[in-house]
Fold these 4 entries.
Entry 1:
Amino acid sequence: MTRRALLLATIAALALVAVLVIGLRQAPETKTSTGGDSHPLDAVTVRAKLGGAPPALAALHRRANDLLPGGDEKLKRELAAVRGHPAIVNVWAAWCGPCIVELPVLQKVSLDYGRRVAFLGVDLKDNRDRAERLLRRIPVTYPSVEDPDGRIFDAYRLVGAPSTIFYDARGRQTFVHQGPYQDRRSFEEDLRRYALRA
């Protein structure tokens, strides 16, 4: 690795830690009005798990918890930017109870696979303030594209939220799971089957 590449990787890792530390400081440690426990991320664990990620994936990590405007065109650009890596798109909303139950599963799996797999969220027809509060309570290591009018949701022909869409490294959609993942094991099985092995 050249000195320049090493310097860029170090800067990216430090930026990721800074973003997540800020998010951790903002995350409440007790129950909030939206219900449920908080699930903070430990900055040391994040650095250990995600440090050294390829540049396209590190770019996602630097925007952890961000809500990105732009709808379906923005999602297409984000997926194009990570082509060459498997990708998982999770459609969620702060008004969706099953999404809130599933979010800690996504948090943990994205930490363990974030150096190999691109994770992106789609925030469906949501109130931005509520969505930001939820992400402070259960922070994730990737950004979400806002879908205020449901165009992304409709394009995937989904029947509800949460839903999770899997892509292989060539950018081919390989599977859609509709409904929540309530445990880590079933999510990891689908990830390995439809993203890593596809």
Note: The first helix runs from residue 3 to 26.
Entry 2:
Amino acid sequence: MVFNLGTNDFGPGDPGIAYEAAYETFIKTVRSKYAAANFILIDMYGGTRLTRINDVVTALKAGGESKVEALSVSAAQNNLGCNQHPNVAGQAAMGAVLTTRLKSLMNW
């Protein structure tokens, strides 16, 4: 399962520990429904967003979660679209990063 959540939560600034706690709770809830799934938490912009996502992954792993990871697509991000959204080339580049990771993770 691929999660790309919370990007807009950083619009007014770093949402802090509350963001991490909510994300962690959400992932635990989804895990309760999909015990065998691999989880990839996407970061689109790097910086504090990536730090927070990495903190979530670290906390989940400390709690026994083994099939969760962060994947940053920020290096592939191309913000030439409207309102900081990626344009077509940016979407394709991010998709290529995710595709490469999924192929490896799923042995495709």
Note: The beta strands are 2-3, 39-43, 68-72.
Entry 3:
Amino acid sequence: MDGSGGAAVAASVLIDGNRIVDVGDCAGPEDCAVLDCSGLVVAPGFIDLHSHLDLQVLEDRPEKIRQGVTSEVVGNCGFSPFPYCGDPHELQEFASGILGRPDGWGWSSAAAYLRAVETGSTKMHVFSLVGHGSMRIAVAGNSQQSLSAAEFDQMSGFLEDALSAGCAGFSTGLMYAPGSGAGADELEHLCRIVARTGKLYATHMRSYAEGLLPAVREQIELARTTGCRLQISHLQAAGRKNWGLQQQALDEIEAARHEGIDVEFDIYPYQCGSTLLTQWLPGWALDGGREALLERLVTPDTRSKILHDTEQSRAQLWSDITISGVGNGRNAELVGKTIDEVALDRGVPPAEAALDLLVEEDGVVNVVSFNQSEDNLRQLITHPLCSVISDGFYVKGRAHPRLYGTFPELLGKVTRDEGWMPLAESVHKITGKPAKRLGLRDRGLLKPGYFADLTIFDPASVRSHSSYEDPDREPQGIISVIKDGRVVYGQCS
């Protein structure tokens, strides 16, 4: 399966060095090493278009390569481990809940981070976006206020430097402070810079719940005005009462595409998502960073207003939100419990329990939330504009199973067992399609001249064994992974 979405063919792939030199009825030299793939699928190495393993890709961890992933895109949702000015502490405080480590990291520029990746990552090809939230932290701290002219110019310079240094694009996280403070003029100016380079703009929109349609329209208008290439990250209608909004959101995206706007989206093959518990709080409560939030949470009048605003805007039931990680470990025994269950144990209302947990864990509580219906997930993941992603990140507790099993889950349960789409289409959504979104001309397909990144899997047995209760499980059916012509996982002969 060459990654194009076309039907499978019986063929050989000839590799010389780090490149594919022939595909078809070909034979190598007499002393050529042979990997017998009879009865298996040979595909391009999988590309994860959206992950948050910005720090872990430097550690050669096995979770992604054993799924068949050879390339991944970090720096999503406005979070990147660069840039910072002076002291990286504020950047670390902002991004640690998503990047999975409280301190001991940070790069002053995109160029510095990309150099570290180039010298430190052997298992994975890493492509990084530059995060809008991180840039805002660097120029103005954790404030949602409008930027001054000088701050605005400095942030524009950071973006131009990052794209020139080799970043694959730009990301926003408009549900997270301080990115939530960005107005139309700020985003338009930055997206014009991205458009000039032809690189990708990926957005975690302002809302995936009751504000889904205005959020989609804002991003489409931004792409229309600036000409940027728009990737809507993890599109979904979150919360049971909002499931009916999805069709209209897709209609508007399709209409924009028909108009000539370069817009696509992505999603992971699970009904549950994972994020920070603070995402359910009103945006104003997060202004100024973690210390300011914690002070508000213990000030009675302010806490009362936070409780009111949280309950007014909450899309999910508290029983739909499960604790997956905690900041300082004081409540480690609560991992795996819903907010409702914690509230019942403590004899307090669920919203009170949620705020108490944030205070006790220094503002960092990771959660898994039940977001969407199976019908909606099927509609999204089979849509021709959809790439499939992991959106995976590490937590101090129990990570979402998508970190460990996204790609085998897609190929096994979603494709083979449920029959949602043909296998060649699923392969396309994790190879040729994301490669095209990134503008990669020599990855994502099995073609002569392309880099020799290949994943070989058994279509009859491939599956994920990861669960919400026990996520860190090695998948089944990924036989071999080849990166740059070398076997880096599985069988080598």
Note: Residues 234 and 267 are 4 Å apart (CA to CA).
Entry 4:
Amino acid sequence: MDEQNSEILPIVKALADSDRLRIVGVLVLNPASIKQVADELHIPFRDAYNHLTSLEHVGVVRAQAAATPQEAVYELDTEGLGALSRRHLAGEPRETYVPAPDLDKKSRKVLAAFLNADGSVRQIPIQEPSKLRIILDYLIQSFTPGVDYTEKEVNTIIRRFNTDVSGLRRDLVDAGLLARVRDGSRYWRPEVKNDE
């Protein structure tokens, strides 16, 4: 993962929770204590505390010094967020995924076009079978031949690349890159037989 994404990703994950977004909304108006946030949003004190500490950990909010954590008053860390946005919105060129040099020219071109800098799949070329096959060949590299996977494990691996987990799982099976038992309880990457 590149440095830019490694800095922003924890913030994005922290803000992916609706209660945390609501907390940011409260703090936009005024600094507030944990109890004030809990009362304002009608959530348990413990939940408000956990959300605020998560937001503090990623640099979205900061706590003003207090005798105890319960008495702390939280506010948006506008300086930290401002510095973050200046670093990432300063017009620097965006990094792109660089395919392995041992791949053929077409594969390198397709992967560069369809993958994000972190290697996740930006777009699935559903209408273009030859390009889809290159993406599937790329995805299957994350599975070890001879290892059994549950459907949940397969989904977790695929989700690292794209949210269309069931579609990509089905595509991998249809392409013969991933095998499964009929009830879907076990998946595996078939061994590739090299012709001598």
Note: The chain has a mean pLDDT of 84.
